[in-house]
Amino acid sequence: EARALPPGVLEVIVSDNCSTDTTPEVVASAQSQGLNIRYIRNKVDIGSDANIAQCFNEAFGHYVQIMGDDDLYVKGTLSYLIDHLQKAEYGIVCLRPFGYEADPDKEYPRGGDARIETYDKVGDFLAAIGPYITFISACIINKRVQEDIDARQFCGSNLVQVQRNVYLKRYILACKRANSGGYDFFGSVRRTPRAYPRFVSPRRPHAGSNRSIRNTDAEVLPSIQPRAPAARTPRRSARDLQPLFRALRQPAPRTAICDAARTSRSTNSVAGKWARHGPLHERTMHRRIPLRPDVRASNCEQTMSHKNLEIERLRAVAVLLTILVHAPFKQLFNPYLYSSFTGVDLFFVISGFVVSQSLLATLPKNLGETPVQRLESSRQPIIAFYLRRVFRIAPSAFFYILLYWVVAYVMKATGSVALLARPADIFREGIAFAGGIYNYAMVYGGIPTNMSHYYSLSIEEHFYLLAPLLLVLCGLTSYRLAACAIGVGLVLFVARPLTAASIADLSHTRFDELLYGVIIALLVDKYRYLPVWQYHTLAGSDVSGESKLVRALRGPGTRALLKTLVGICLCALLALLPGVLNTDILGGTGQFFFSSAAFCGYALVSVALVILASLERGWILNISGLAPVLEYIGGRSYSIYLGHVLLILVYNDLYFRFYEFIPDFFKLTRTGYLIQFAMFMLLVLALAEATYRVVESPCRDFGKRVIRNFMEARA
Predict the structure, then answer these.
(1) Separation of alpha carbons 94 and 97, rounded Å
(2) Domains in the chain, CATH or no CATH each
C-alpha cells in the first residue's frame, strides 16, 4: 500500500537502538523489495525515550507517528488517513486501535464507527480518547506546531499536547494485546489500559489550560506528580473523660477531683449531665474550680503528650495509600488500587478532629457573653495554638523545599532534562507556599507542579486561620455544630457547583472534610461513653438458655476479632472506592470518581474510621505485630509524606538516564519490580526517620518550650 503512494508523501524511519536481533537483515530485505526506509542504527543503547525522540527529530514529514514493531495498519486505511491529513491542519491525530492475538484480519471488530471528531479544547479531546493519549502508536503528532522544540528535552518526563486535535473513530490500527505498554484493548476506551489512573474531566472549563495539561500528563506516566495528604497535627488524649470518671467513682479528696477536672476542663458540663442519670448520682455534684493560668498551660502540654494510637494507625493507612498511588511500579497491585488517593480525605478528617480537640482542651470554660469578651479570654490559647502549628508544620515543610532546591541544582548541573532540574521553578513554588497561596497558584497555572503535594498543606493552613475563630466566637457546642453544618452546606451546595477549577485542590471546596473532623471533636465526649459503644455491656447481659455459639460470640476474643474486621473492611473500602468508581463496572463514565458526590463518599468512610479511632476501643487494626509497625509509620507520616515525592522524581530521572546499565532482571520481571519497590520504600522510611530525628522532633520540642515560656510569662 505504501508503494502505491506518490513520492514524498510517506517516509519510514527505522531507529535501531543497538539491537542484537536480526533487525538489520529485516530492514535490508524490505529495502530490496522497494520500500523506502531510512535506517538509523545507534552504536550504543540510548534508552527507549531517547530513541523515540530521535525518530521524531529525524523525521522530515509534517506529521510524525511513532509505531511499535507489533502494531499494524488495517488494510486500506493508510490512504484513507493520508487523504484526511491533507485536508486540514491538526495538532494530534488519534487513531482508534483494536487488539488482536494472532490474525488482525480475522479479529477485526464488528461494527465500528466511521465518524471523525475534531476538538479545539484539550480537555474534551482527552475525555474522548481516554487512555489512548498514552498509547504512542495511536497518536500522530503535527511536527509543524512545535518546530523549535527538541523532543529530547522531554525524555523521561511527560507528553506534550497541543490544541486542535482529531479522533478518527474508525478502526485503523491493529495492536498486539498485552504488549510492552500493558494495553489489552478489550471493550471501550474507558476500560483500557488497566494501569491508567485518571484523566481530565470534560466538565472542567480549565481543562485546556497549561496547568491542566501538565497535571494530566503527569498522571498518565510513572513520573506521577501526586496529590498528597495534608500536614500532620499534634496529638491529644482521646480519653480525657476517663480520669474524671475514675475520680468520681471513688471517694477521692478534693485535690484528686481538681486534677481530674484539669485534665478535661472542656467537658465539665458533660460530667454534670451524666451525674443525674447514672450510678454516679450521689457523688457527682460537679464543682467548678478555677485554675491558675500556669496550671492551665502545663495541663495543656500534658494532655497533648498523649497519643491516640488508633489515630496513629489511621495516619499510617493514609500515608501508605498515598505512596501506593504515587510510587513507581504500582502496577504490581490490583488495578483498583491505582487511584487510592483517598488517604488525603482521611488525613483531612483526622486533622480537623485532632486540631479541634487540642484547641478545645485549652479554651477557658467561661468564654464570655460577647464576641469581644470571648476573643479576649481566649487570647493565650489562640496564640499557643498558632505557635504549635508553626513549629509543627513549618520546619519540615521548608526543610524539604530547601532539599528540593538542592536536588534540582545538582540534577541540572549533571545534565538532567527532567522538569525537577529547574531550581528557579522550585524557588517559585517555595515562595508561593510561604505566601499561603500554593494550591490556588498551582490550580490556575501560576507555578509549576514539582511539589504539587504541598497543596494539602495550604488547605490546612487556611483552615487553621478559621478554626480558632469558629470555636471561640461560637461559645456553645450547639452553636459550633450549627456553624460547622452551615460551613459544610456552603462547600457542598455553593462552593463546589460554582467552582470551574479542580475541586480537589482548592481550600473552599475541601473544607467540608476538615469540618467533619471538628464535628467529631465536639461530639466525642458525648458519644464515647454511650452503652452502644461498650460491647462488653451488651455481652454481659443475662440471656437464659443461650447457646454455645452465642457464648462464643460474646467472648472477648470474638469481640476483638469482629471489631478488627470492621476496621479492616472500612480501610479496604476507603482504598478501593475510587478505583471502583474509576471503571465502568458500576456503569460509570470514569469521571465520577473525581466528582463532588464521590468526595462525599470518601469523606463518609473517613468519618466512620475517625469516629471508631476516637473511641480507643481497638476498632482500628489492633493486630499484634502489625499495630506497632503502623504506629511507627503514623508517627512519621508527615515526614514520609513530604519526602516520598522527592524520591519518586529523583528515582524516575535516574531510572531513565541510566536505563541501559540496569540489569534486565530488574527491568523486565515482576520480581525485579517488586525488589525496586521494596528498595524505594526503604529509602522513603530512611529519609523520613532522618528528617524526624534531625528536624521534626527537635523543632517540635523547641516549640513546646517556647509555648511554655510564653504561657508562664503571660501568667
Answers:
(1) 9
(2) 2-176 (3.90.550.10), 309-534+555-713 (no CATH)
